[in-house]
Automatic annotation (TrEMBL):
Domain of life: Bacteria
Lineage of source species: Bacteria, Bacillati, Bacillota, Clostridia, Eubacteriales
HIT domain: residues covered: 4-112
SUPFAM superfamilies in the record: HIT-like
Residue span of motif Histidine triad motif: 96-100
Protein name: Histidine triad nucleotide-binding protein
PROSITE patterns: HIT_1, HIT_2
Residues of the signal peptide: none
Pfam families with a match to the protein in the record: HIT (PF01230)
PANTHER family on file: HISTIDINE TRIAD HIT PROTEIN (PTHR23089)
Listed Gene3D superfamilies: HIT-like
Length: 112
């Protein structure tokens, strides 16, 4: 499959990695929207959060526990935002599930 984030997960395209194990990869976004902006992806291809099911609970817990640990390590003590865009209206440009993590600036809500 011709998927950018599968290629990044497999190391075929380089990325600035924060953490990886056999299940997930965390790497910095190439076009950061905040002083800290990284992405967390499952290594196994999933189209988007719309494709998640009950069987993915363990993976999601691992993603969020990893985000919490990385944010602590990066000193994001004032908080952070986790976002996953789904589909066209959601603004998803890469069709491989990813969680944006943004921190170290005040983030507006609601988003535009
Ligand atoms: P989306 O718009 O799908 O929610 O988010 C995709 C994100 O992937 C964007 O924030 C974009 O900057 C990032 N991105 C796109 N291509 C690359 C790449 O080749 N490397 C990295 N590190 N990030 C990328
Ligand atoms: Zn993929």
């Amino acid at each position: 499959m011709d998927c950018l984030f599968c290629k990044i997960a497999q190391g075929q395209i380089p990325s600035n990695k924060l953490f990886e194990d056999d299940k997930i990869l965390a790497f910095y976004d190439i076009d950061p929207q905040a002083p800290v902006h990284f992405l967390v992806i499952p290594k196994q291809h999933v189209d988007s959060a719309a494709a998640l099911g009950e069987q993915d609970g363990e993976l999601l817990a691992h993603v969020f526990a990893t985000i919490a640990r990385l944010c602590k390590e990066l000193g994001c003590d004032n908080g952070y935002r986790v976002v996953t865009n789904v589909g066209e209206d959601g603004g998803q440009s890469v069709k491989h599930l990813h969680f944006h993590v943004l921190a170290k600036r005040s983030l507006a809500w609601p988003p535009g």
